[in-house]
Write a structure and sequence with these properties.
Rna Polymerase Sigma Factor, Chain: A, Arc Repressor Mutant, subunit A, mainly alpha, disordered N terminus, 212 residues
Length: 212
């Protein structure tokens, strides 16, 4: 295992040897970050119908079953491995519940290991609107969401993904680079560029629609 790639080596090995307490501790430690990722990536049409914590229960079960295989060839840190399983699970849920509704050619596949066929643009727009608009103004939110999605679509897809990973999933610069398979310096430069572009996009929207 590469040096520094996993800070939980001993607990992981104990868990693989059957120590349920070590596994539960690892899951409790990972849960807040994974739940944030699932809540962000879950299609807005399924929010309220599917609880992110329920999604993660399936993720933990699959991870437990595959733990020994992961430890034999740990290609990425443990948290990012769990994140990849969560992304695959979201893919399955989206296909099952939304079916052909997911086949809009404008909904590009998110980048990164195990990410769902969920548009980063839609997730970003929804996350931003939660912070920017008054919840009571639903008609305005719909119009603003469409305008915001169109504007976000003008960004480089990789820049959008870096923004989502850093700002909404709150991954570190190192983790972001590992997920996307690029150098950390390149990921940092893309993040700075993405934040600058996002500010331009938000400033172009009607300020009367935004929370003071």
């Amino acid at each position: 295992m590469p040096e520094g790639s996993n800070q939980n080596d001993q607990r992981l090995q104990r868990a693989a040897d059957g120590d349920a307490g070590s596994w539960e501790a690892l899951m409790a430690e990972s849960h807040p970050r994974l739940r944030r990722m699932v809540a962000f990536r879950l299609d807005h049409r399924l929010q309220g119908r599917i609880d992110p914590s329920d999604v993660l229960q399936d993720v933990y079960l699959e991870a437990w079953q595959d733990l020994n295989a992961y430890l034999q060839h740990p290609a990425m840190p443990f948290l990012l491995w769990l994140r990849g399983i969560a992304g695959n699970r979201l893919c399955e849920l989206h296909r099952h519940h939304l079916g052909t509704q997911m086949r809009d050619p404008r909904r590009e596949i998110s980048l990164g290991h195990g990410m769902p066929a969920e548009t980063t643009t839609t997730a970003l727009a929804a996350g931003l609107l939660d912070n920017l608009t008054r919840a009571s103004e639903e008609a305005i939110r719909v119009e603003l969401r469409l305008r915001l999605q169109d504007a976000l679509n003008s960004m480089d897809p990789l820049d959008r993904e870096v923004l989502a990973l850093r700002h909404f999933e709150q991954l570190s610069p190192t983790e972001t680079a590992q997920v996307l398979g690029i150098k950390e310096k390149a990921a940092g430069m893309r993040y700075v560029r993405a934040v600058r572009r996002l500010k331009e996009i938000l400033n172009s929207l009607n300020p009367d629609w935004l929370e003071p």
